[in-house]
Specification:
alpha+beta; single chain; UDP-n-acetylglucosamine1-carboxyvinyl-transferase, Chain
Length: about 425
């Protein structure tokens, strides 16, 4: 099992190129189930474990997926299966997104109920209620959900919460359902807009993707398409926060600053100098950060996926900061590991109060989930001495070759088997 060894205390200085968005690539790859024609997904972070798992999912359902660098070509090999295997769904909750395309095309789908994970339960009831509103029936059988419909009926849907996964699942189902489906209360993330662009290339007509109301004009038969995935805003935000913690000057290329306005505003309030342009972001930080309290919220609010990295930054602040998590119920598991490095964090329920310290110290620590792992890596870059991070496979789920990218910016990070 891999681990990362970090010799901290060096400023980050250099340029890092941002990969394609994992959270955009996953639903777009799964949306290729909507057509029998070939699709090519470009700027895809193919080295990530979740992307590899998605490729396995497509192949298990009857597709052929060929990876070539940062491109994935998806083709048909015959009829598709309508049952997602539990062995894959248990590894990646996004596998449940296969339900929408398969239900719309074949009138039947069987998917295992995803279990809980380290950061929370994340129930799929919003997905299921949406399918029912389109005319599907559901039953539970031995840990699986079976959805069936003679045909889905386009119509109005209203989500009780702007769930990203439910919005994506229902958009895909609506794309293959003739007629107009209007999704109110939809998630507004940039990844939703990217999926809408891909569905439009397939032949559906999608408007409003990236706003709270998405309108999908579906078609019974969709075609193939080629699409380049947007930059990963969470990877970009993680590197910006890392630069603020370790200090120095970092330039990000292939990044979209419009997707990170809440994060960039918070960084500027810490005292960081942040400049932006078309396709790039630059940050310079010379002092300890000022304390800045944040509250996570659905887009365009502060991203929950950057809450743990922000908490790591605030451990070095010149005062007290409050971090409130409103999206997931169990997302402060990094607090105990940061405390091993000298951080002072009092976490209770959905809130953590962080008392900044002048310096963190290297220590052996362990990642509990993807974004907690990113937080520990940020702390290790800023800490004095050596830090050994185990369970790196969590970090590998969301960051391509992270040690190589950081090394280009002067960090001393080594991956060990």
């Amino acid at each position: 099992m891999d681990r990362l060894v970090v010799e901290g205390g060096r400023p980050l200085e250099g340029t890092i190129g941002i990969s394609g968005s994992k959270n955009a690539a996953l639903p777009i790859l799964i949306a290729t189930l909507l057509t029998d024609e070939p699709c090519v997904v470009e700027n895809c972070p193919t080295a990530l474990r979740d992307i590899k798992t998605t490729v396995r999912l497509l192949e298990s359902l009857g597709k052929r997926a060929t990876v070539d660098g940062s491109s994935v070509r998806v083709e048909s090999t015959g009829s598709l299966k309508t049952q997602a295997p539990y062995e894959i769904v248990k590894q990646m909750r996004a596998s449940v997104l296969a339900a929408g395309p398969l239900l719309a095309r074949f009138g039947l789908v069987r998917v295992p109920i995803p279990g809980g994970c380290a950061i929370g339960l994340r129930p799929i009831d919003i997905h299921l209620k949406g399918f029912e509103a389109l005319g599907a029936r559901r039953i539970a059988d031995q840990g699986d959900i079976i959805m069936s419909a003679a045909r889905l009926n386009a119509g109005p849907l209203r989500l009780r919460f702007p769930s990203v996964g439910a919005t994506e699942n229902l958009m895909m189902a609506a794309a293959a359902t003739p007629g107009r489906t209007t999704i109110s209360g939809a998630a507004r993330e940039p990844e939703i807009a990217d999926l809408g662009a891909f569905l439009t290339k397939l032949g559906a007509k999608v408007s409003g993707a990236g706003t709270s109301t998405v309108v999908v004009e579906g078609r019974a038969r969709l075609k193939g398409a080629r699409h380049a995935v947007i930059p990963d805003r969470i990877e970009a935000g993680t590197f910006l926060i890392a630069a603020a913690a370790a200090r120095g000057r970092l330039r990000l290329t292939r990044a979209d600053p419009a997707h990170l306005e809440a994060v960039i505003d918070a960084l500027r309030r810490t005292g960081a100098a942040v400049k932006t342009g078309r396709g790039w972001i630059e940050i310079r930080m010379e002092k300890r950060p000022k304390p800045v309290s944040i509250r996570t919220a659905p887009y365009p609010g502060f991203p929950t996926d950057l809450q743990a990295p922000w908490t790591a930054l605030m451990t070095l602040a010149t005062g007290f900061a409050k971090v409130r998590e409103t999206v997931f119920e169990n997302r402060f598991m990094h607090a105990a590991e940061l405390a091993r490095m000298g951080a002072q964090i009092a976490a209770s329920g959905a809130t953590a109060v962080v008392a900044g310290v002048e310096r963190l110290s290297g220590a052996p620590i362990m990642a509990s989930d993807l974004r907690a792992g990113a937080a520990l890596l940020i702390a290790a870059l800023a800490a004095k001495g050596r830090t050994v991070i185990s369970r790196v496979y969590h970090i590998d789920r969301g960051y391509e070759a992270v040690e190589k990218k950081l090394a280009r910016a002067g960090a001393r990070v080594e991956r060990q088997k």
